[in-house]
Structures are given as structure tokens and as C-alpha cells.
Design brief:
13 helices, two-stranded antiparallel ribbon, mainly alpha, two-stranded antiparallel sheet, 61% helix
Length: 248
């Protein structure tokens, strides 16, 4: 069934056999993903076009097997999926993230010494501030918070609008959401520019990546930077790469 939701066509699929067929074929809703990249993250048009140009499809495996397909490493979707599979969801990456998160969360908790009472601490606010800070440092290293005062608050303000931004309402109808996105994207872009300048990519390319290092943080952080560099992303899109990583 097709229905209209604002400017979008949405399709509802019913029936066990139909739904099963979709998931067996590694179905992806590429138009919706394009809207997330364009409006939720705000990739610049020239970099968004690189996804659209890859007509082999948004899944790890290509949509068709004709001989005109580029090698897998040149498929932007395939390279992105491989980066996430290797550096985000592998057992080594999950274990490394858990260990670094525990370290940083323990540091956050240390500001509340055992045995000393603290009044007026709201549990939700405590978790939103301290767990988000620990998770951010685990993924991207400590500098992104150090160089961006108010970073955690900017994240949660963006998080409120991230899903609705994907509908692509005109900026003049969605000013609060656009301002929240642009503020947070600018913070991530500022951090990336500093980290990219400081990090020695030549040495990193000749040695085994550590699970975590203080400039870029985790392997997924460095992996996304390499992926973006390999497809010649503009500096303006790098903030978009990382706001989606943190939102996810």
C-alpha cells in the first residue's frame, strides 16, 4: 500500500511471504537513506552524489552481478559496510569499546566520591551527561569534548530532531532542528580537522591499528576517516560522517 506523508511516498508491505522475501534479499530503502545523509547529517551535494552514483545498491553485496561493476573496494556502499563490520561489530571491537567505556565511565563517577552525599542529582540527567561523555570518549577520544564546550548538551539537542530532520522540511519551517544540527555538525567538523592534522596517517598505515588511541579514539573512528579519505570527501562532509556515528 502506498501513502503520502508530507512530501514523501511511503510503502507498507503486508503478508508473511512478502516480508520474508524482502529480508531475504537484503532489502535497503535507499531513498530514505539518502534523505538521512542529506538532511539528518547534511552531507554536501558533491559527496551525497557519490552514494547515488553507486548504482550497485546500498547493501554489502551488489544489486546485480554484471561485469561493469567496479571492484568492491571502489563501491562506496561496500567499503562503508566493511568498515562497520570490521571495526564496529566484530568481537574485538565490541570488547575494546566495552573496556574503554568502563575506564571513562569510572573516571566520570570519580567526581562523586564514595561516602559523600550529593543533593539534587537527577538520575536521568546524570546518565545523559556521564554515560554520553564516556561513550563519546570511547569512540572518538577525549579531545572532541575538550575542544567543544557544551558538546554533550549539543548532542542531546541534536538527538531530539535527528529523525524528523530526515523528512527534509524547508529550513524556514524547521529552524530549531537545523540550528541544532549545524551546531553539532560544526563541533564534529572542528574536532576532525584538528585530529586529522595531528594524526600521522603514514605511520598508522604501516602498523597494526591499536584498539584505541587518544587522537581519533576507536578503530571505527579511524576507519571512517580512511573510508572518507579514500572517496575524497570534502571537509564540510566530515562533521556529517561523525554526527551519524554518534547518533547511532
Amino acid at each position: 500500500m502506498k501513502c503520502r506523508l508530507g512530501p514523501l511516498n511511503l510503502y507498507l508491505v503486508g503478508g508473511h511471504s512478502s516480508v520474508s522475501a524482502i529480508f531475504r534479499s537484503s532489502f535497503t530503502s535507499e531513498p530514505w537513506i539518502f534523505r538521512i545523509l542529506e538532511h539528518t547529517a547534511k552531507y554536501v551535494p558533491s559527496d551525497l552524489a557519490k552514494f547515488i552514483k553507486d548504482e550497485s545498491g546500498g547493501a554489502t553485496l551488489p544489486r546485480n552481478m554484471n561485469t561493469d561493476l567496479p571492484v568492491p573496494e571502489k563501491r562506496i556502499w561496500h567499503a562503508m559496510h566493511r568498515t562497520h563490520e570490521e571495526f564496529l561489530v566484530s568481537a574485538r571491537s565490541v570488547n575494546a569499546f566495552a573496556a574503554s567505556f568502563q575506564t571513562f565511565y569510572s573516571q566520570q563517577l570519580a567526581i562523586y566520591p564514595v561516602g559523600e552525599w550529593v543533593e539534587d542529582v537527577r538520575v536521568l540527567d546524570f546518565l545523559r551527561q556521564n554515560m554520553a561523555a564516556a561513550a563519546t570518549r570511547s569512540v572518538l577520544g577525549p579531545k572532541i569534548i575538550d575542544v567543544n564546550p557544551g558538546f554533550i548538551d549539543a548532542f542531546w539537542n541534536y538527538e531530539k530532531f535527528a529523525e524528523t530532520l530526515a523528512f527534509g522540511l524547508p529550513s524556514w519551517l524547521n529552524q530549531r532542528a537545523v540550528r541544532a544540527r549545524e551546531r553539532f555538525r560544526a563541533m564534529c567538523g572542528k574536532w576532525y580537522a584538528l585530529a586529522d592534522q595531528e594524526f600521522d596517517w603514514d605511520i598508522a598505515g604501516s602498523q597494526q591499528d591499536p584498539d584505541w588511541e587518544p587522537i581519533f579514539g576507536s578503530q571505527i573512528s579511524r576507519g571512517l576517516a580512511r573510508w572518507a579519505k579514500s572517496f575524497d570527501f570534502s571537509a564540510d562532509s566530515m562533521g556529517a560522517v561523525y554526527i551519524l556515528l554518534l547518533f547511532g
